[in-house]
UniProtKB/TrEMBL annotation:
Transmembrane segments: none
One Pfam family from the record: YjdM
Protein name: Alkylphosphonate utilization operon protein PhnA
Stretches of the chain forming a coiled coil according to its record: none
InterPro entries noted in UniProt: YjdM, YjdM_C
UniProt domain Protein YjdM C-terminal: residue ranges: 2-64
Length: 65
């Protein structure tokens, strides 16, 4: 999260290449994700990424833009 407070509807950027479970695809560093939703749990960000679909991310791998 890099010290910035996240809110529902924010736009974020992925700061590290991430392997997608159950797929051979990789979510590339620098990918922008719009309109996030915060949830409780291990993966605390729920979002839709074009080309990947619905996904949950951990806040440690993103930064707010």
């Amino acid at each position: 999260m890099n010290g910035n407070v996240l809110n529902d509807g924010d736009t974020i950027t992925v700061i590290k290449d991430l392997k997608v479970k159950g797929s051979s695809s990789v979510l590339k560093q620098g990918t922008k994700v719009k309109n996030i939703r915060l949830i409780n749990g291990d993966h605390d960000i729920d979002c839709k990424i074009s080309g990947f679909g619905a996904m949950k991310l951990k806040s440690e791998f993103i930064k707010k833009i």
